[in-house]
Each structure stands twice: as structure tokens, then as C-alpha cells.
Amino acid sequence: xxxxxxxGNLLKMLGELSANNRVHYYLELEGITVAVNDLVGQEVSxxxxxxxxxxxxxxxxxxxxxxxxxxxxxxxxxxxxDCVLRPALCKAHLGVSxxxxxxxxxxxxxxxxxxxxxxxVKVGVTRESQVPVRWxxxxxxxxxxxxxTPNRHxxxxxxxxxxxxxxxxxxxxxxxxxxxxxxLNLIDFRERAISLLTPEMRAxxxxxAAVTSLLYPxxxxxxxxxxxxxxxxxxxxxxxxxxxxxYILFDDDRVLNIRRHTGYLITLTY
Length: 270
Prior knowledge:
Oligomer: single chain
Distance between the termini: 10 Å
Number of domains: 2
Strand content: 25-35%
Radius of gyration: 19 Å
Low-confidence stretches: none
Strand order of the largest sheet: 1-14-5-11-12-13-10
Helix content: 10-25%
Mean pLDDT: 97
Shape: globular
């Protein structure tokens, strides 16, 4: 069988959820779409071409900051603003942003506060348009909506408040090893979270309490995962055993975080 080869800058994998709750992944490289699910069970090679391009301005940078930016864009691009990682810091509702046009499409939109099972029950925030993409990116096995807010700031305040009782971080090792308690009842956790909210915050509780389950294309999960990086080795190759979150899993317990290498120019052979 003839090997396929495509070169391009890595971006986060695109994830879609089918009607049967199965996650399908796609990698875009220079206009070519690679169905990553189809690579599970195959030998693949990712060769770093010694070039990193900023995903905002495109210029070559020696080091990637904040998952894909050069140092300058990390400080000025709206996509790298503090509120991306810490929604409670968002000031777009006050008319303050690195770029108000961008903020209107990203911050001044309906947001959900949610609970997800990623190994532990975590609280998170995402735009309404990013459901269920955000859950796929985090490798959640199930998730449920909690509150719906008119902007990112309010969702961030609720998340920040609940982070006293729920983690707001994903343990990547628990996630990639599928060290997840599938018996956890997210509805029970949702009811507990609602009881913890202030009266003002309860006004944003949404009626939709349906639990979404997510099934990932994995033949075998690693038991003692070892994280790989193109900063340490130029070529990463092996047989794919699965994909979960933004990680591709190799059958010898090695794992590669694709999003961590956003902007890296690579040649994929499969």
C-alpha cells in the first residue's frame, strides 16, 4: 500500500460527535483533511521540520507561547488574552478587550458552565457554539450543562465560585489512561452544584440537564503514559492505538499532545 505524505503546520484536531456518541477526529494540514480515526491501528510518522510559525501573524518563531503564538502576539492577540484561560477576568462586557470585534464573536456570546467527567468531575466554561467540541478537546467521557450566561465574564464568575468544590483542571494522565469512574452520576453532581450557587447565580441555571456521553476511537489505553515533544525529538513514529482529547496514543504507552505543538511545521506520513 502506497504511503501518504502531507506537510503543514499543526493546529488542534477538529472533533465531531456522531449520533451514536462516537467522536471523530480530523487534522487539517495545508488544506488537506486527514481522518485521524482511520489511522488507528496503522504505523504513522510525524517529522518536525525545524520550523514553528505563529498561528496569529504567521512569522517564524524560535519558541511557541500559549499554544501557538510568537512572544509579540501572545501579548497582543485577542485569542491569547487572559480571559481565554481565566474567563472571570473577561472585561468585554465593559467594552474593554484587545479587539472588541473579536470579543463580540467570542466573549459577548452565550456561554455554558458545565460539569464533565475527565477522570475527576470538573467544572468548565465554553461558548454555546463550542458544545460539544470543548468536551471532546478535554477528553471528557460525559458532560452536562449547568448554567447558561449572556457572556464569558458571568460564566467565569460561576466557574470560579464552584472551583472551591470541583476541580477546574483536567489531569492529562487520568484522561489518557481512561482512569475514569464511569459510575459517577453527573446529575447528582449537578444538583449539588446548583445547591452551592448563590441566589444570583441560580438565575442562570439552564433547564437542559441531559447528560452527553462520548466514546473515543481507542483500541488500547496506555497504562504508564510518557509524554512526547518535538522539542526533545525531531521524529515521532509508531502504531497508533487511539485518540482522546487532543492526544494521539501510541501502542507503547507514548502519547503526543497535538495542541501543545500548535504552529509546528511537520510532515505526516501514514
